[in-house]
Design goal:
Oligomer: single chain
CATH class: Mainly Alpha
Largest sheet: 2 strands, antiparallel
Structural class: mainly alpha
Number of domains: 1
Strand content: under 5%
Helix content: 55-70%
Length: 185
Amino acid sequence: MKDGDFILTESTAILEYMVQKHKAPDHWFPSELQPRARVNEYLSWQHTNLRATGSKVFVLKAVFPVMMGSEVPKEKMDAALGALNESVALLENYFLQDKPFIAGDQISVADIVAIAEIMQPVGTGVDVFEGRLKLSAWRDRVKAALGEKLFKEANEVIMKINDLTKNVNKTILEMMKPKFQMMFS
């Protein structure tokens, strides 16, 4: 994000900056100490947990087959899905508990970041909401808080990722393939 000469490159820092710059309603990044600490705790945790596991499943399901011309080996996919399920369980059982949203009774940037990470594997056909009533109810509250139209618009590209990867430039794929092979060998 660039604001004049000021540049930020970290997503959660950008979110906090934008909330403060535009004086967004307090619930997005609460001023009260404990709800703000809960938002910060989630934002600190998610980088190496839900983001990492959701992104890995996304890459293995959507990018790997296009890049490598084959499906991901079952043991790699099973391990990635297991790690994702662990992260989702922590989101559900630790961060949400019995609250409507991560920081309490109102939606915050933590919920926006969480739903964005979860929708990546969902876009590849992995339904992380299946059998998770608490998580599904939270998703529905996030959708309602944002509005159905905005939620759909925000996830439009990710929900069509399998169609989009079919039209990728094959020359670019071949150039990227050696680096990709190193990542997943």
